[in-house]
Design goal:
The complex is a heterodimer of chains A (87) and B (499).
Chain A: H1 13-23, E1 37-38, E2 41-42, H2 43-65, H3 71-79
Antiparallel strand pairs in A: 1-2
Helix pairs in contact in A: 1-2
Chain B: H1 8-29, H2 38-42, H3 50-61, H4 64-77, H5 84-96, H6 99-109, H7 114-122, H8 125-157, H9 164-213, H10 216-226, H11 236-252, H12 257-265, H13 269-279, H14 282-285, H15 287-300, H16 306-309, H17 312-321, H18 325-366, H19 372-394, H20 401-412, H21 416-420, H22 430-449, E1 454-455, E2 458-459, H23 460-478, H24 483-491
Helix pairs in contact in B: 1-9, 1-18, 3-9, 3-12, 3-13, 3-18, 4-15, 4-18, 5-11, 7-8, 8-9, 8-18, 8-19, 8-20, 8-22, 9-15, 9-18, 10-15, 17-18, 18-19, 20-23, 22-23
The chains are: A mainly alpha (87), B mainly alpha (499).
Chain lengths: 87, 499
């Protein structure tokens, strides 16, 4: 049987996700500051850009490595060859 | 968006573009469509492959508002509007909360609409009815917004050569033909063409804006000198608002009925995974690009009022189009991109609305024993009637686009706990989920109607969702379902849990 993996039941994923999300919002930086400007972005927005890229990478990693449930359907249809359960 | 330079050329391009979409869709995507089957018609027989699924997810999610309204937001808000990129990425995180499980459950039980899940899980007419009505209301609002956007875009883009209502009628008629002939297969195919045009238009527009009005860096330097509040670390209230937007869009857009149907329609788990993987990067190419366009616009057209800034993209396009024949015709492509973005959202909403009418309202409440062909037919006919009724409302368009955008989320997001909790916790009871949805919708709707968009930075929809979850849990504990009902509910998903 192929291993079944479901993202919601992998506990560590969610604190990491929340950390990436919260670091991308400038609530912890001194209000009113601008400099330095990096590639046209004020530093805090640049941090947010970097964290958004990290977010996309992380979600991609989770999708590819921690999501695999379809084998359940194969097993199920093997068990109920006659039924199938489709409408 | 006013492009007075276009006029009759714009009319010709619009007609040609619409006919191209209609012709190629009818020719390539209506053969073999099972029009007598709910799943065959509304879900492309659950056989969408990676390319079409990706493009239909993409084009459906990004509407005309993304292309026209978002640069205006970046113009007004400044760098804090970067939030539009992460909040679109977070839609994928929203999917990860429920889509993996819902996908296998939907395949096993042959779901067609989101309400099928409510029916299976809660086995309560009241719960299914309230969820269906909330979704119908949200979808109608959403559709109304798209119709208004279509009319404004066409009359703006053709400088009034095509009056508002004729423009909408024309595009709508084209769309209804391919939607009713090909169902989701045709919608996904049209979304593919529209998606390519949106991406080309947006990327090309950035290049031309950058070369004509100066780079992002020079716009930023200019803002530091002229409007530093748009470049500074924003106040804490804005950060809260930012996080609130993450929840509203991240969860709201993932539980859109049309988004849920796209989960059902994937031909395999791998297809769904591949499409979502790509979707996680698309915000950079769409909301990210239009964000930069909006910031560049601050240097090109400083000092615009709120209403004037809504015309920003049109103003930029006017200047660019005047440069050469190439620029002129490229702006025509951008103009098709705007129409494409609106149309690709509208067709999906129309189809989903029709599926809710046929599978849920007719098939569950009016005539449950009707055959599928009859249900599909009913959904098509009533769908068309509703669309035309909405068109009458759309004649008097409301204020700016962005304010209507949040309104639909407020209501649609209230079905989220039934998925986020209902897929994992057998204790979520009929009473709990019903009162949760109602209280959430009342709070969110009440705040919106009383003109309070946010409280301490939190959006009405998010506050409604929070209340919804609390009420769902408390009333599920106070009024649990009977033990055998809980066991039956658990059977809907317990077979996926292997520990």
């Amino acid at each position: 049987m192929k291993q079944v993996r479901e993202p919601v039941r992998v506990k560590w994923i969610w604190p990491v996700l929340v950390a990436i999300i919260l670091l991308g919002v400038p609530w912890y930086l001194p209000q009113g500051s601008i400099e330095p400007i990096i590639l046209g972005f004020p530093y805090w927005a640049f941090i947010s850009v970097v964290m958004t890229i990290a977010l996309s990478f992380f979600l991609g990693y989770v999708i590819l490595n921690w999501w695999s449930m379809e084998s359940l359907l194969d097993e199920d249809s093997e068990k109920n060859r006659a039924g199938g359960g489709q409408k | 968006m006013n492009l007075p330079f276009i006029g009759w050329h714009g009319v010709i391009v619009i007609v040609a573009y619409a006919l191209t979409i209609l012709g190629s869709t009818l020719y390539l995507a209506t053969r073999g469509v099972k029009r007598n089957s709910l799943s065959g018609f509304y879900l492309a027989n659950k056989g969408l492959g990676p390319l079409l699924l990706f493009f239909t997810l993409f084009s459906t999610q990004y509407s005309g508002n993304t292309v026209i309204g978002y640069p205006a937001n970046a113009y007004r808000i400044g760098f804090a509007w970067w939030q539009s990129v992460p909040y679109m990425v977070l839609v994928i995180a929203g999917y990860l909360l429920f889509a993996p499980r819902l996908y296998v459950v939907s395949k096993k039980y042959g779901f067609v609409t989101p309400s099928d899940w409510f029916d299976k899980r809660f086995n309560s007419k009241a719960v299914t009815l309230v969820a269906t009505l909330l979704m119908t209301y949200g979808l109608l609002n959403y559709l109304l917004e798209q119709l208004v956007a279509t009319g404004q875009a066409i009359s703006g883009l053709t400088a009034g050569v095509i009056p508002y209502i004729y423009g909408v009628l024309f595009l709508l008629a084209m769309m209804l033909v391919y939607v009713s002939m090909g169902g989701l297969k045709a919608v996904a195919f049209a979304d593919f063409i529209n998606g390519v045009v949106i991406l080309t238009g947006v990327l090309g527009f950035l290049f031309l804006a950058w070369t004509n009005f100066g780079s992002l860096s020079s716009a930023t330097q200019n803002l530091v000198a002229t409007a530093p509040q748009k470049v500074e670390v924003p106040p804490i209230q804005t950060s809260i608002n930012w996080i609130s937007m993450y929840i509203l869009v991240g969860i709201g857009a993932a539980v859109y009925p049309q988004a849920i149907q796209r989960i059902y329609a994937a031909d395999s788990e791998m297809t769904l995974k591949k499409s979502l993987l790509r979707m996680a990067w698309m915000p950079f190419l769409t909301t990210g690009i239009v964000f930069v366009i909006g910031i560049i616009g601050t240097q090109a057209f400083p000092g615009l009022s709120k209403m004037q800034s809504e015309q920003l993209v049109g103003m930029m396009a006017n200047v660019i189009a005047g440069k050469s024949a190439f620029h002129y015709w490229f702006m025509m492509l951008v103009f098709c991109g705007v129409i494409a973005a609106i149309q690709s959202t509208t067709d999906s909403v129309v189809l989903t609305l029709s599926s809710v009418l046929s599978n849920d309202i007719y098939g569950k409440f009016i005539k449950p024993n009707a055959d599928e062909a009859e249900k599909v037919r009913w959904g098509k006919i009533v769908g068309v009637i509703l669309v035309f009724l909405l068109l009458l409302v759309a004649w008097k368009p409301p204020a700016t686009l962005v304010e209507i955008f949040t309104l639909k989320f407020e209501v649609l997001i209230q079905v989220a706990p039934a998925f986020l909790l209902g897929l994992y916790w057998k204790g979520l009871s009929k009473t709990g989920v019903l009162l949760g949805m109602l209280s959430g919708a009342v709070l969110a709707g009440g705040l919106t109607f009383s003109g309070i968009k946010t409280l301490w930075g939190w959006h009405g929809g998010v506050l409604g969702l929070a209340l919804n979850i609390v009420v769902s849990v408390i009333f599920s504990l106070l009024f649990p379902d009977k033990k055998e009902e809980q066991e039956r509910a658990e059977q809907a998903y317990s077979w996926v849990v292997r520990d």
